[in-house]
Write a structure and sequence with these properties.
By secondary structure, the chain is of the alpha/beta class. The chain is built from 15 helices and 9 strands. An 8-stranded parallel barrel has the order 1-2-3-4-5-6-7-8. Helix 4 packs antiparallel against helix 13 and helix 6 runs parallel beside helix 7. The mean pLDDT is 92.
Length: 367
Amino acid sequence: MSFYQEIEKYRDFDFEKFFASVNAEKVQKIMQKDFLNREDFLVLLSSQAEDFLEPMAQKAHQITKQYFGKEIGLYTPMYLANHCVNQCRYCGFNAKNKIPRQKMTLEEVEKEAKFISEAGLKHILILTGDSRLESPVPYIIDCVRILKKYFSSIAIEIYALEQAEYRQMVEAGVDGLTIYQEVYDEKVYDYVHKAGPKKDYKFRLDAPKRAASVGMRFLNVGALLGLSDFRSEVFFCGLHAKYLQDQFPESEVGFSVPRMRPHEGEFQPKVIVKDKNVVQILLAMRLFLPKLGINVSTRESAEFRENILPLGITKMSAGSTTAVGGHTFENKETEQFEISDERSVAEIKQMLLEKGYQPVMKNWMRF
């Protein structure tokens, strides 16, 4: 069964009416429960639940310590190429944007890998734009084979693949997939994805399922906050994560809360998602899915990332750049979006230690 069938169940659901029905008593009752259902999750995403962020935070902190301890996994992104045929209104790599297009050679990939690994990181996330011509599957696999020499865990954040292609990735050494639906509202999705293969809503929606079905160990989903109403968007994202947990219990499922950042192009967020909103999202997600990994990237400021650590965070990026070859290239004018936390791996590691967390550079061996 496709997750699309789960979304279809809410085709005529009146979110505004539901949120208007929430009161303090209902939120308090949910806070006493050990296991939450879908409706409970949606209640905790309501504006009325904002008055209960402190007790939600205390409970979320205890749940996170129970399942994850005080460990934070560290990784960094590595952009292989920025060629793209999509016309996503919100993205700096939009095919219509007049930016320098680059693609790393295998020699440059190895140089970048050496540089990153010298900082101690053993988890890496590789990214490309959506161009099967410029960044075909065989090219990405060749890059993975080089990266295996330096990293114990390799995740991909690339265009959606067919199931057989995900199998090739897993066989080459990829163990993680990050793929954001961007926006679950199908009408908004159609608008913001003006043209290109990414316009296929259902194909992208089922990408995590195709990957998990061939043995992908880590799955990470998310919605780009700012494209549509964040409360309903996070609700669907939470259901998507639960669907993957239920369907593939052998895979570890994670969730990210990316907010729109300045990028090449004129598109502006439809909805402004404030810090307080992100806090509520994190807390509601943790209480709904206690075993869910929660990642916060360098889209967020250093101060904000530090402040939300106790709220359920299990993974964060460090020493990040969104430019092709951003760690070793002299020309870094090809960023997908501006990052906010520019601290090095060493600085992030030290910050975690000072706050009583154990930074995890590598948590398992590749055999």
